[in-house]
Amino acid sequence: MEATVNPNSNQLLKQIAKELYINNLELNKQRKRIQEVLFQVAEIIFSIDQKFKIVVFNSSAEIAFNISKEKAIGKHADEIINLISHKNAQPIKTNDYAFLKKDKVKKDFGDPIIVKKESDEGSYYKLNFNNITINSDTKECVVSLSDITDEIELDRKKDEFISIASHELKTPVTIIKTNLWMFEHTLKSKLNESQIRLLNETDEGIRRLSKIVSNLLDISRIEQGRLVIEKKETDINQLIEEVVASYKDLVHKKNLKLIYTKTRIKDTYTDRDKIVEILDNLISNGIKYTKQGHIKLKLSTSTKDIKISVSDTGPGIAKKDYPRLFQKFGRGNAGLKQQTLGASTGLGLYISKRMIEELGGKIGFSSELGKGSTFWFTIPKLYTN
Amino acid sequence: MNKKYKILIVEDEASLRFVYSEYLDMEGFEVIQAEDGREALDLVKTNPDIDVILLDLMIPKIDGIKVLEKIRSNPKNKSIKIFVMTVLSREKVIKEAFDLGADDYLIKDSLTPDQIKEEIISLLEPR
């Protein structure tokens, strides 16, 4: 039997073949374009499969890791890519981040994740990764490394400047403070009311200036990783009482109450100066924002921790401000305006958080608009070295 | 404070040296002053009856740490109480000073002269 070909279907096949050919050309063109972009960008880009084998390796990666893509593809990523975390100076291997949840990785290695190459300590890179699904059983992790050496260097210079400037500021601030105290001490009985007021306001001004300089110094220490922790046996109870006593005048002036009921606990092993500074930050915040009522300190313990909380009857904190409360300059633009009206630098909570983390504790808060806020922190109970 | 204590104030900032001296003199101390490390060491040599020294650590000619080391290296000075002073707290240098025999440290920025006096008295006359 002879096969019959329908002339119409023949025509159709030709048409389909032609369209396929054109589509294919277009696809190829697009693929080439994407490949060119991927391969020519300044960023180091590579991609790995679920067995951590390299499947994509761009030109910048070839240069950075000194290996051609032909040689790199198919190898285990850790054979070629040797990175060190800037945060903890430990090697960061592919399985430390690839195919994992971003939040977890950022918690361990910082946000942004900053790395150095093992072979080149001078350059810094920001590491970004994306877990992508190619199809139902193929997943890949695309990793990019952007060179941020210049930004890091600029940041370092900024910290260095702050450090030098605040060191230099400390001496004149101390001179003004001490001289002013001497004036007050020797002349107070001879001054009239408005002169005493002037003296008090100057005193308050210099106290604030001094606090700002201290905050800036703390920040530069923290950012440069130079925060020194010196733990020793500390009577927390006595320490709180001392700090509370130092606020007697200020609290009296503002017609507020600062309440602390003694709670007996054993001495613990911690950094006394840091605890004083954190308490100072929390209490002075409480006093600053509270128009009437009280600031109350409470000490409690659990099996592992000592918890200190500072509650006020201030205005409370709006929900929208929660996320940036513990950030550097956390009060944002509104903060700057308040600053000129007599608040502090917006650095206190950030500094407190960083310090308490160094001491192995936690810091947090709860707040209700119109009722007040409670800031608390914990330190581990440590009785021996 | 019944006894009149002799105190050496070593401080290069003239203004601070003046205020500390004035105040402690008013409070009944016998005050002598030095503005640099060399002068401090000379005064320690010629004044064997010094009870206490306020020693700023950042001073010209011979720095405070060296001065402390020199004073403590002579057993004759064993009974002198030495406070080191800085404008900054928590510096490594404070630890170094303790290791070299400082009795205590004072953060100038956070203490008023009367508080400094209290610190001195509580070291000289422990309860």
UniProtKB/TrEMBL annotation, chain A:
Record keywords: Kinase, Phosphoprotein, Transferase, Two-component regulatory system
Histidine kinase domain segment(s): 164-383
EC number(s) per entry: 2.7.13.3
Domain of life: Bacteria
Catalytic activity: ATP + protein L-histidine = ADP + protein N-phospho-L-histidine
Domain annotation PAS: ranges: 30-103
Annotated InterPro entries: HATPase_C_sf (IPR036890), HATPase_dom (IPR003594), His_kinase_dom (IPR005467), HisK_dim/P_dom (IPR003661), HisK_dim/P_sf (IPR036097), PAS (IPR000014), PAS-like_dom_sf (IPR035965), Sensor_HK_Regulatory (IPR050736)
Gene Ontology molecular function: any one: phosphorelay sensor kinase activity
Protein name in the entry: histidine kinase
Source organism of the structure: candidate division WWE3 bacterium CG_4_9_14_0_2_um_filter_35_11
